[in-house]
Amino acid sequence: MLATPLTLNLDSVRLTDEQFYELCQNNHELKFERNSKGELIIMSPVGGESGNREVQLMTDLEIWNRQTKLGYTFSSSTVFKLPNGADRSPDASWIKRERWEALPPEQKRKFPPIAPDFVMELRSETDSLKILREKMQEYIEAGVQLAWLINPQQQQVEIYRPEKEIEIRNLPTELSGENVLPDFNLNLSLFL
Fold first, then answer.
1. I need a surface site. Which of 16, 32, 65, 134 has the fewest CB within 10 A?
2. Which long-range contacts (C-beta less than 8 Å, at least 24 apart) are formed by 180-188?
């Protein structure tokens, strides 16, 4: 049975951005997101296999980034304030250097008001595929240029791009960072 995230309707509360930030800071043991409707989402922790897969994916992305020096890599602990008002934390993300460096220091310290250029979500045993797909669409609508939804349970990966149909590939496969992450290739044979 899937344990879907707990979603709280806060219509009567209306947390400000500062209040949401403080809530997250005062409850480090919990992982929060907010959707565009202002609903508070309390995320489930992942198990060992998902956590290990996530760090392997992030490591490959960070090694590529250190070699190219084209931008900045972020972990699943980073919350981004998207243009639609949602506060989201992808499992791994990346932002072009010039876009990140254009943000004032105060915005970098808190929840940056920027959509990453690239996001990666890794479906864990507790994740609802429907909810993850909605989140991926939200990323693309917010300005993300390339997004990967890796789904080990169904041995597939879904590739999202602006104004294009979702591409679905079966695992194992090799993914290209295309023009967003030049020369970045990710071999997904580790998901077998």
1. 16
2. 180/117, 180/118, 180/145, 180/146, 181/61, 181/64, 181/70, 181/94, 181/118, 181/146, 182/68, 182/70, 183/64, 183/68, 184/61, 184/64, 186/57, 186/60, 186/61, 188/150, 188/157
